[in-house]
Prior knowledge:
Blueprint: E1 7-10, E2 14-17, H1 25-37, E3 45-49, H2 54-70, E4 73-80, H3 95-126, E5 131-137, H4 141-151, E6 156-160, H5 174-182, E7 187-190
Parallel strand pairs: 3-4, 3-6, 4-5, 6-7
Antiparallel strand pairs: 1-2
Amino acid sequence: xxxxxxxxxxxxxxxxxxxxxxxxxxxxxxxxxxxxxxxxxxxxxxxxxxxxxxxxxxxxxxxxxxxxxxxxxxxxxxxxxxxxxxxxxxxxxxxxxxxxxxxxxxxxxxxxxxxxxxxxxxxxxxxxxxxxxxxxxxxxxxxxxxxxxxxxxxxxxxxxxxxxxxxxxxxxxxxxxxxxxxxxxxxxxxx
Length: 191
């Protein structure tokens, strides 16, 4: 049941902290003090992977509010897909023709990802949250997400239930499902 400090204690020792929308500065300090006094573990470093999609942007907004309420710092990650050439039966192009295309596609995706992480850091900074933006390239985004969480010493990942590719699993996107399966730290999924 709900305690006087606004926390719901769930069976098995888990605690669900109700975090209100970003309050005025004074109320925020009181909320932080109440959370700390209640003995609830406070997250100090949050990773929020994003692809710039509408749902991913909603996860960013939630992550910024959560980080602000708990005093955590934020790391945002945009994973660029690796340029892969799949041979088609009877049709191949020489590497000399593919290289300029690969470079152009990578440059465009890098610029798009940089703009995405810049927007996240601008939103976080405006809310008073420390933020670092990271770009990564990987054919397996979930691996890059877990690797970055480790490298940034994050103790929570907040991510969208699915990204640009839409619903690839029954309920969750395939990358989110893989992060949930393989991550050794908690993952908060935003729908």
